[in-house]
Amino acid sequence: MPDRPALLRKDDMAKIKMADPFAFTRELAKKDKKLHILSGGKAILEKYEVRGAFSTGCYPLDVSISPHHPGLPWGRLSEGYGLTSKGKSTMGESALIECQKVVYNKTLPGVPVLLKFEGDFSPPRFAALGGDIDRLIIIEAHHMEGGLEQLDRWLQAQYKEFGKELPILVDWDSVAASRTEAEMDADHYGPGQIGGQARCLSTNLPYFTDLISYSHTHILMLNQVRHKMNELNNPYAQRNPQANQPQPTGGFAPGFYASVRIEMRDIGRIHEHSDDKKSDAVYTPLGDQVQMQMIKNKVGPPWRKVVVPIYYRYGFDDKESWMIHLENRGIVEGKGGGHYKAEIPGFPPIQFYKNTGWKRHLENPEFCEAVKACILDLARKESGLVVEAPADVDLEAIEMGTGVTQDAVEPETVTEESDQ
């Protein structure tokens, strides 16, 4: 990392009698009520600091989104998109289940909300994933405008009754299945209206971005991708696959207003193997391995990849994803024949056989916490949060917000400017 000059803090500016336009701005904002200006760390942190996040049910995915507050950040929008059967609904339902476990300030429980347009919700599957049907709110709508209007009224009523500190997670499943009111009123057998979803989203998403800001609400938009019709038979697109990448439905508005965008790709199947070749369980598929990539991230580093095993029977396998995540980063090393070796900081090297041996070691709570700490430490190093500080910077002082050490300002420079 290149050398950077030491930052001047408030105490250093007072020593050298430097002009303080920040204090002047604060006084000006107090006098002129038409000025909506924030000056200083305290005022900015109160407005824009992320106060928490909802877990997705997969810890490596949470820390890849944000090493500071792992998970889907409060007060923001996010988008998860991919082709069909890539685990989008499973990710949304898993996040709703994790929201049911949240309790803020010992008095406000997490409120999971499912904004459903498809009408294909399965209560038995939600219960099989670990969810509680009695603590789930479903908003049903026939078209996009009606669903967003109901969501707006419900959020306004919740904020008025409980305040904006109530943790709320809204799972919008899905944007591609949300038809506009004009499409519902049009002829079902005639040509559809082009761009209706994009116009509706570009009009309403700025409002919801402002509505949930400074609150403990997160809106997760699940979306499907489509191909550009004018490039399907284009010879240039056929020779250059990058020219015709699948695009999410609904135009560019979801990408503009989402703080986190997760692209989901299927990279393999999880099979149940059997030594008996006559058995039907030789190649029985049990789930999929889905690669999730942070295409856009305003709360952490983008372009991070996480491989998540999703089983058809019970959804995310969180602890198995730990092993895959550490194996991709060299902490867990495969020895062949299903045997692995892991070197977790704070523990002696261990050897285990496949996923069953790994989960047996994770039954030790201390080892489990050490693995989570290792995953978090790797995410912070990849994001640049753990760096070597210059010689004149006190890391503890920066973490406490007090700034650089007193030796950062040379006494001779202070004397010369004070004499002037």
List unreliable stretches of 5+ residues.
387-420
Strand content: 15-25%
The proportion of residues forming helix, as a percent range, comes to: 25-40%
General form: globular
Largest sheet: 10 strands, mixed
Q: Please, what is the oligomeric state?
A: single chain
SS content category: alpha/beta
Indicate the topology.
Blueprint: H1 10-15, H2 21-31, H3 41-48, E1 53-54, H4 59-65, E2 72-73, E3 76-82, H5 88-99, E4 103-104, E5 108-109, E6 111-116, H6 123-128, E7 137-140, H7 144-162, E8 168-173, H8 181-185, H9 196-212, E9 217-226, H10 235-239, E10 247-248, H11 253-257, E11 260-272, E12 284-297, E13 305-311, E14 315-316, H12 318-328, E15 332-336, E16 339-342, E17 350-353, H13 354-361, H14 365-383, H15 395-400, H16 411-419
Parallel strand pairs: 3-9, 3-11, 6-7, 6-8, 8-9
Antiparallel strand pairs: 1-2, 4-5, 9-10, 11-12, 12-13, 13-14, 15-16, 16-17
Helix pairs in contact: 4-14, 7-9
